[in-house]
Amino acid sequence: MTNHVSSKLLYELSSACSQTECEVCESVECASWETRPSNFMAKNYEILGTCQFDGSENIWDEYHPQQTTIWSNKAPIALKHYPYNRADVLRCAHCQKVYLTYTEFGGYYVDQRIRLVNPDLIVLEE
Ligand SMILES: [Zn+2]
């Protein structure tokens, strides 16, 4: 059973990193959701838990009170909403930066996406 990560815990985890330069993460540019780069090395990241909860796979609503889109750098990180409600929480073992990752299942493709967690964008909710 994977640990469930609440918005509060995600805030604490992502606020803990003060390092900005990281040789492991430097190829992962993902202020907004991006496809994981081909050189993404999963072994450099620790899985801290998941934001999924009972029934979350049926929730497709996005949260954009400021007219952002899913691809925006400023899109809120709202764990009750899509796609955050599918995401697992990763932490770089080297610099402690925290990322969310989820798998998009399209009709003819599977896309593994990743986004850096900016604590200022997290919607604190229970
Ligand atoms: Zn790193």
Structure description:
This protein has 126 residues and is mainly beta. The chain has one domain (7-121). It is built from 1 helix and 5 strands, in the order αβββββ. It has a 5-stranded antiparallel β-sheet, covered by helices on one side. The protein is globular. The chain starts with 6 loop residues before the first helix and ends in a 10-residue tail after the last strand. The mean pLDDT is 93. It binds zinc ion. Zinc ion (ZN) is lined by residues 22, 24-25, 92, 94-95, 97.
Write the layout of secondary structure elements.
Layout lengths: L6 H9 L18 E2 L9 E6 L37 E5 L5 E8 L4 E7 L10
Antiparallel strand pairs: 1-5, 2-3, 3-4, 4-5
The structure holds zinc ion.
Zinc ion binds next to loops.
Keywords summarizing the entry:
single chain, 126 residues, mainly beta, 1 helix, 5 strands, binds zinc ion
Q: N-to-C terminal Cα separation, in Å?
A: 21 Å
Biggest sheet descriptor: 5 strands, antiparallel
Bound molecules: zinc ion
Order of strands across the biggest sheet? 1-5-4-3-2
User: From the helix content, strand content and strand pairing, which structural class follows?
Assistant: mainly beta
The total beta strand count reads 5
- Low-pLDDT runs: none
